[in-house]
Amino acid sequence: MSNPTYTAIFYLFAAITVFSAAFVVFSRNVIYSAFALLFTFFGVAALYVFLSADFIAVTQVVVYVGGILVLLLFGVMFTNNIMDTDLKTDVMHALPGTFLFLGLLGALLFTFYTTNGWMLSETVLQGSVVERIGFETMSRYVLPFEMASILLLAALIGAAFLARYDNGDTNEH
Amino acid sequence: MIHSALPQFSMPLLMGNSLNAWSDALAGFSPAGLPVGLLIIAAIPLVFIALYALTYGVYGERKISAFMQDRLGPMEVGKWGILQTLADILKLLQKEDIVPTSADKFLFVIGPGVLFVGSFLAFAVLPFSPAFIGANLNVGLFFAIGIVSLEVVGILAAGWGSNNKWSLYGAVRSVAQIVSYEIPAAIALLCGAMMAGTLDMQQITIQQSGPLGFAHFFLFQSPIAWLPFLIYFIASLAEVNRAPFDIPEAESELVAGYFTEYSGMKFAVIFLAEYGSMFMVSAIISIVFLGGWNSPLPNIGPLALNDMTTGPVWGAFWIISKGFFFIFIQMWLRWTLPRLRVDQLMYLCWKVLTPFAFVSFVLTAIWEIYVP
Questions:
Q1: Alpha-carbon distance values, B27 to A91, B125, B134, B139, B172 (Å)
Q2: How many Å lie between the alpha carbon of B35 and the closest alpha carbon of chain A?
Q3: CB of A5 less than 8 A from some CB of B
Q4: Which residues contact A158 (CB under 8 A, 6 or more apart)?
């Protein structure tokens, strides 16, 4: 990581992440916000790569860009007159918002400064991480894994039920 | 966990050139502290896409289409029309860069760019030769499957930004198609990954090397492998919007789909992205099922054909030939099969390909566990 090229690339991706995230929040146009989210997700994936978490980085792209962002874009694009709507909320909670912001910032800074010494792994990661991830998923984390799969199955059945063309209902009309 | 215990493979077949020798040497090449070598590594697939799209992609496709329809194809510019593509490029360069008045300027402009980046990024993990790969990730195959989602966003940006109903219809059809066909494609590739026991593209390829040539390819290593091979091939046609799954740009109903409004170089970039994706899926199917850069020729007794045709340069030759072979099949199918309707497309994906992909997944798993 001492290589200046890698440092430059790191700061490039960090800047992309932060600025696109700011654009998502401050843009008045929902479509542009959604597209800026693409760059945020990619920047975060790149930061995962810098942490040697390739698998998580690719999963980030698959899940967030391939799944969530596309869904979001579909939702935004098929809403009528979305470009004409001026994004403004009538209710402005300035005081609670400030407190929330300061509290979150304080908590993050507190954690950052009180964690003495980030624990660096003694051994450098060797070989493929994928096998380890698969092994851990199927042994130590098998219960959360199965719970997530049941949740997803329920969501799938629910989606199929909602999208189903109901014959009985149409015949009555 | 069977394959994880396999020892690292010895490399006599690489003829003294260790794995990734060229790309490692290039990555270390940084005169005056500038990462020139890294840029060259990224430029090599880019130049490759441009050259192949010019020659085989455009000219080859027109000639092959002409041959299939008993026509002559381009014949005017140069002998046999060889220079036709260059003339087309000149025309595209000179064209006025039109942005429709009612289009969303920003999305209209970045759409083709995002699309091309999406198709180009996957080239980073394609092993072009035993000595060259852009990025030797240990999740290479996963990356190649996942990065396609960037193309989806590019198509949506182009289609929505054009502010044209044909474009939007084309974009929506295209996205629905790509997102749906990713599932059988990913499960089919998972079968190949199970046979290899790794997601590393170079390791998948090395597992298929051997003195018997094609007999070591995963397609011939298991009695079920033809099923995921076929499923991935069909799904990959849909992922790159090729016929018979070209409803996103169905000329007879949608003008040209999501790139109706594009002209000049923006149109060229969209087509470059399409040709890039065509080679990408062809290379992935070659790597996972047909041995990538391995020579298909077997050693026959004293006639060591396999040893003679193995090496970094031969490797590049083999993988590009295999890729071109599958692109030829894609072009062939374009003039053979009629276009599917939208409902037929979804029927094929969800009720045919996906269940068969699961069946092949389970059968491959059983084969890999119980048959040594």
A1: 55, 15, 9, 20, 40
A2: 7
A3: yes
A4: none
State whether A54 and B146 contact (CB < 8 Å): no
How would residue B14 be classed by pLDDT, with cut points 50, 70 and 90? very low
- Contact present, B178 and B239 (Cβ < 8 Å): yes
Is the confidence at residue A168, as pLDDT, over 60?
Answer: no
Instruction: Encode pLDDT of B114-144 as tens digits.
Output: 888 888 888 888 888 887 787 777 888 888 8
Residue A32 to residue B358: CA distance in whole angstroms: 38
Q: Where are chain B's structural domains?
A: 96-125+135-370
Contact assignment for B149 to A35 by CB distance below 8 Å: no
Specify the pTM: 0.82
- Establish how many alpha carbons lie within 13 A of residue A159's alpha carbon, considering only the half-sphere containing its beta carbon: 6
Share of chain A above pLDDT 90, in %: 21
B259 and B253 Cβ atoms separated by less than 8 Å: no
CATH classification number, A1-85, choose in 1.20.120.1200, 1.20.1300.10, 3.30.750.200, 3.90.1150.10: 1.20.120.1200
Which among B107, B145, B136, B120 is positioned nearest to B23, based on CA atoms?
Answer: B136
- Residue B146 to residue A38, Cβ atoms within 8 A: no
> Beta-carbon neighbour count of residue B83 at 10 Å?
15
Cα–Cα separations (whole angstroms), residue B240 to B81, B122, B213, B265, B270: 27, 13, 30, 20, 12
